[in-house]
Specification:
The protein is of the alpha+beta class. The chain has 7 helices and 9 strands.
């Protein structure tokens, strides 16, 4: 074999291995997408035996407290004082999680609660996506694959929770576990890099000193979140839509 042929063969082998690795990490639905270096069971797809969910107790959520929002910004590299979206207007910047104030007009009673992607069992964003960039893993986590997103924003229009953002500019200083890109849609990913690493928490749940946010496996009857759902009345936002959300609220 000639030297040039050997070089071509080596190059093809290298490219082939690299492409296969990239596909396993970023493309295949149901396969771990984030944190290739630190993720556990990297070669295993997410399992439907688990359904990750979140319970938010609004009775413990203080008005004016934004610790959960700040923690999400720091963990995933969006928003805040150090936002890398320098040229976007406030209305254009990312918002993976936001605090919402509810008021009962008949009594004047107010409540404060965080709202983010609700990780629906039947997500409208997935239904309308023309490229499968919007996807739901087998374990219930709804994600956006930025390598497939074409920026059509159909998912943003379909989401009844206004939980998705569009990136309007080129970004720098991104987090390795939360890649972001101009022209792509993004939203809360339930800190999937932490879940895949076996931590079983999200940045927002860890930051809440009042214990208002509980994260866990909805399918595990012995888990704290399943026990709370069993013993206390909880609510889905827009339950009338029949989306069976993975995020539930207590006290509203």
């Amino acid at each position: 074999m000639s030297e040039s042929n050997q070089t071509d063969l080596t190059r093809r082998q290298f490219v082939g291995k690299g492409a296969a690795a990239a596909a396993a990490v970023t493309v295949a639905p149901g396969v771990l997408l984030y944190g290739a270096a630190e993720a556990r069971n990297l070669d295993q797809p997410a399992s439907s035996d688990v359904r990750w969910g979140m319970l938010i107790d609004t009775n413990k959520c203080d008005k004016g407290c934004n610790d959960c929002v700040t923690a999400c910004q720091t963990e995933n590299g969006w928003g805040g004082e150090n936002s890398n979206e320098k040229n976007s207007s406030p209305e254009q910047k990312a918002q993976w999680i936001r605090k919402v104030e509810l008021k009962d007009i008949s009594t004047g009673h107010t409540q404060s609660l965080p709202v983010m992607c609700q990780h629906c069992e039947n997500p409208p964003c997935v239904d309308v996506c023309p490229t499968t960039a919007s996807m739901k893993r087998a374990d219930g986590v709804v994600l956006v694959d930025r390598h497939l997103c074409i920026g059509c924003r159909f998912c943003m229009m379909a989401c009844p929770y206004k939980a998705r953002s569009f990136v309007h500019e080129s970004l720098t200083d991104q987090k390795a576990h939360a890649p972001r890109g101009k022209g792509c849609v993004e939203s809360c990913n339930l800190c999937v890099h932490k879940l895949d690493a076996g931590e079983g928490v999200t940045a927002c749940s860890v930051s809440c000193t009042k214990g208002a946010i509980t994260v866990g496996d909805l399918n595990d009857e012995k888990s704290e979140i399943a026990q709370q759902l069993k013993n206390h009345k909880t609510t889905q936002i827009r339950a009338d839509l029949g989306l069976n959300t993975g995020v539930r609220y207590r006290g509203i």
